User: What shape does this take?
Amino acid sequence: MNSQELYSFVFRGLLAEEALDKTSRISKYGKSEALDKEIAKKCSLELLSDDFAIPARRMATVYTVIAAFENSVRDLVTKKLLEVGGANWWQDCVPEGIRTRAESRKSEEEKILWHSARGQALINYVEFGNLLGIIKCNWAHFEDLLQSQEWVHYIFETLERSRNVIMHSGKLSLSDVERIGSVVRDWVKQTGG
Assistant: This one.
């Protein structure tokens, strides 16, 4: 490939990238400004004070990280327990108290037809801290993957503290945000995803 062909190839790629950005392409990094503006308009963000909206927007990225982490743990738990427990993993591997609360939450949610559901799987109705409880109750199946129960407890405790601040409209300090990044990196390195 000569330099003219290479230039043409790269330029076409840049044009394609720009066109995709204009079509509200969604990225985990929030590259879809058009979609963000559309959602903000539908939620009437313009009616709320910048004093509250700007700090909340900053915390939205932290929320994204914590929500993605939480859902990745749900996925890890589901896959591992399905692998070892088969189709009955929910009944056989999840403690009764956690199962009962999740099933009750799902049942209550099904009565409210006008609102979106959390999902179809019962694992979506398990509280964040209860994911740790499921892992601990099934430690024999997770110990080859996770470092130690104490380490897993530390990861969850650290993230749950920050999660609670974010979920209740609070703001985290930069050191709290850095701590989140550190424990998420450690988790991903240990679990491979």
About this structure: The chain has a mean pLDDT of 87. The CA atoms of residues 109 and 115 lie 8 Å apart. The chain has two domains: 1-47, 49-191.
